[in-house]
């Protein structure tokens, strides 16, 4: 091969790396492909194309290039690691585990491989092995934050909160806000006469679950509290005890003017929350009476009012597992008389309005924010939902809610086992998949429980 041809391919490879770092996947793909036309056995170009195709959800193309790279360089641990990540993503778990273990065999001190293996094993509910993998990664590299965060997931879902919150501090969800603010983190000290900013983290459900800590923060700090949150939550969170002001992230946030700040999901760590000390007094949010009056005419006048949510945000990492494929999956619920179904589905799925031979009352398209959702929920008898923000809101309002949970990577906050939630006592019931993807049995269980629920509540109403 002419030296100039190799040099040209290497220049294209470097350009591809620059474009990849800048987030230009299509430009990087073109550069790496051009490099391969000049040097077909360019190992790094194959490996990076595998990464690009994995990121762009083209698993077949990704696998082809990873296998090409591994054929050329079977001794490179990082390629095995990245191939394992692809296999885990497409749920080829045995092959993914094998790829990670091969990376470790080649490089026993590879912290990332140990941590990735731990994450895969946790997804398969092999928690003891997963924990040991993460601890091994941290023994190799005590500063490896990804391993700390992954270990937090394993510990928290076992209810080992005191250990878990410490590792959970490794998350970087609030990094941009931390860089923006000039004040120090609040560590739990009194701030009488001072100003404290609470910053949002994660999605709607995270804020709805953990905003319960703000009254505690208020009592402990005695500070004036401003809550920085999603715009869709702003009106609702003005009803929260302890909040003096609410700013949406669509508004300008000054970098100073506060004496301290706290990322919301660090509150359990600050308070040392244990399984037996969760602040679980319900309700801690409330619906606005004016909004309830607005929505009341849209709700059924007879029968039990049961709300439905069957899809979450497609952007959620585990949405393919936590969401139902369609409203039709819930058709067995229509066999139970005496129920009027109300759709609170917002976004994906909101246009689905027919459940078997029954028409839902579709309200999702008209819902403007979570204050609207709260006003509707407050007038329902029950919400049946996948793991969603609406479920957390129902719990926060003290409204009975049944939550359908996937077998694969259920969120840590629902713990590993049990039909109830310590975060929402007496109002939340959990229905868990026993086998990955098998919603049919879960929904059959929900239908049977719903029939009993109707009978019991009908009898109670007649007393």
TrEMBL record:
It comes from the Bacteria. Pfam families: TPR_12, TPR_16. Keywords: TPR repeat. The keyword Lipid metabolism does not apply. Gene3D superfamilies: Glycogen Phosphorylase B (3.40.50.2000), Tetratricopeptide repeat domain (1.25.40.10). InterPro entries: TMTC_O-mannosyl-trnsfr, TPR-like_helical_dom_sf, TPR_rpt. SUPFAM superfamilies: TPR-like (SSF48452), UDP-Glycosyltransferase/glycogen phosphorylase (SSF53756). TPR repeats lie at residues 9-42, 43-76, 77-110, 111-144. PANTHER family: PROTEIN O-MANNOSYL-TRANSFERASE TMTC1, PTHR44809. This is Uncharacterized protein.
